[in-house]
Amino acid sequence: MADMGSRLRKQLESPNFDPQNYVKQLSQQSDGDRDLQEHRHKIQTLADETAQNLKKNVYKNYRQFIETAKEISYLESEMYQLSHILTEQKSIMESITQTLLSTDKDETAKEMLAAFPKETEEVKQRTLTTLLEKVEGCKNLMETPGRYLVYNGDLIEYDAESMSQIQKVHAFLMNDCLLIATWLANRRGTVKYKYNTLYDLQDFAVVNVKDNPPMKDMFKILMFPDSRIFQAENSKIKKEWLEILEETKKSKVAKDRHKKEEEVPNSPVRQEVSTNPFDEEDEPLESEELVDLSPEWIQELPEDLDVCIAQRDFEGAVDLLDKLNEYLRDQPVSPRVKELRSKVDERVRQLTEVLVFELSPDRSLRGGPKATRRAVSQLIRLGQSTKACELFLKNRAAAVQTAIRQLRIEGATLLYIHKLCNIFFTSLLETAKEFEMDFAGNTGCYSAFVVWSRSAMKMFVDAFSKQVFDSKESISTAAECVKVANEHCKQLSEIGLDLTFILQSLLVKDIKAALQSQKDIIIEATKHRNSEEMWRKMNLMTPEALAKLKEEMRSCGMSTFEQYTGDDCWVNLSYTVVAFTKQMMAFLEEGLKLYFPELHMVFLESLREIILVAVQHVDFSLRCEQEADKKAFILQNAAFLHETVLPVVEKRFEEGVGKPAKQLQDLRKSSRPRVNPESTTSVV
């Protein structure tokens, strides 16, 4: 047996093993099912042995696995450190090279200026004038004094979304702006380009685009909320564009800062003391101009905000705004501060638009309530808690609606309701917890959440009623579904949110209709049975059937039903009365599951009408029946209804509702049958 197992193992492990040929040969060689079963048993045994050996090897080499993982982790950290060291060395070498090149450039520039003191700027201006003559629609660009050309060249523009080529452009970088011109298809004389866009150097940021073949040698210009991508001819020209753009922007910032510093007087002018009390409103302007806006981070703040917004660094943008507000808190308002404020306010508006878009329902809703925390927290920090609250609740409403819409409708209604309640109330609970966390310091927003909870509950009830009540489900199924919804709704009380009353008020109309519909069905069925009533005892034929009926009546609360049973599977009651009792008690139990105070009169009146149909039928039969034996049997059924069934109904109703039903008590007393011994007729 061991040799056969070894041969089978070698056969299965051979590299040329073909499962189809193996099965084909095996089926041809086997005599019947017995051989195939034995072979199957061998293969199963071999598989179990292989699995056991694999498990043993795993346990045996478990420590080696752990040590190997540790070694890999150590190696990874060392490689990271090595990469970090190489990066630092590379940056040091580049800085040294840049320093040497800048030194050479400065010396060369000094020599050129010494040799040609006025030629450089004049040549640049003449060159710019010559080049701009080739651009259609930009004659007024040279009206700005001191503007000259820094760099220019051909670029190819690509679409930022699809990365498809759009057009060929020519870019002119000047000392204070960047001109983008498109190529003319039909040239006219010396005109080769057409004016497209002019950007101020302070209004955009330059970002390097990582090479991803075939898309390479690209850089991006960010002008929130837009961006444009350009491709240079090669990596060298791209590097020149990036470096010259950065240097030109820095030069303009430094020049503007130097110009503003020159406007501030070196020493404040001493104010003359005035004895006129009406001169108090005329504050000295010089003190306002002493607000120090020269720090580099303030000068670069608008550009840094643009970069943060473009890179979706919302926290960094708000941190910069908080830093600026803290810096200017106790400072006087001057024209320069107002100018800075106007630029910053524009960025705040752009940042708000981006955060609003992040919370819009058009965005992905898969992350749950936590996915909105980032945008909500930044809006609150910007002082827009009301807008944040409104957008957060709209986002969650769309998420709940989408989840309900995507829920597949099952054949079993109760299964669908379980899934619906689990999705809705779980989402509502998560939303409430996230809302409490995000808006902990904004108690004024809690009323908005309560209003939103009501609208969300209405959305849930619409889906619930459509599946449970509109599809005409049985009242037992409806009762189970309402019970499930109530149980899930009570779970919200753990966070102090009780929506049970709202749920019941939204369901009351459908539950009333369901109770009245079921009442009509029971009355119709009872009348149909009454029309065929023969007033005969029930013969259940078998002891099992009798035992089953006894158990059913006992579960309905009829503890005295035993006294109405006889020998040989006979029951001393009519089929109509027994069927009515079971149907009546089932309606009572299902109605109690659906019960809440708003349904009290509807439920009580339905019970009264159903009982009245049975009582009136018994009374009519007593008055019409002439045979003494049948009349005695009818009286026995009437006694069962009045002495057993109706008291149980009253007791169970009082237990379920919490107060007695006076209408049922009055009905039982007024309809009690009384027999006249002389005429043997009943009086109701």
Short description:
With 684 residues, the protein is an alpha+beta fold.
Summing up helix and strand content along with how strands pair, one would put the structural category as alpha+beta
Number of helices: 22
Number of domains: 4
Shape descriptor: elongated
The main pleated sheet reads as: 8 strands, mixed
The radius of gyration over CA amounts to 45 Å
Residues in β-strands, percent: 5-15%
Q: Give the beta-strand count.
A: 12
> Strand order, biggest sheet?
1-5-4-3-2-8-7-6
- Intertermini distance: 92 Å
Task: Return the average pLDDT rounded to an integer.
Answer: 79
Task: Provide the low-confidence segments as ranges.
Answer: 115-119, 265-288, 675-684
**DSSP helix fraction:** 55-70%
Function: Component of the exocyst complex involved in the docking of exocytic vesicles with fusion sites on the plasma membrane.
Biased composition (Basic and acidic residues): 252-263
Region (Disordered): 1-38, 252-286, 662-684
Biased composition (Polar residues): 13-30, 268-277
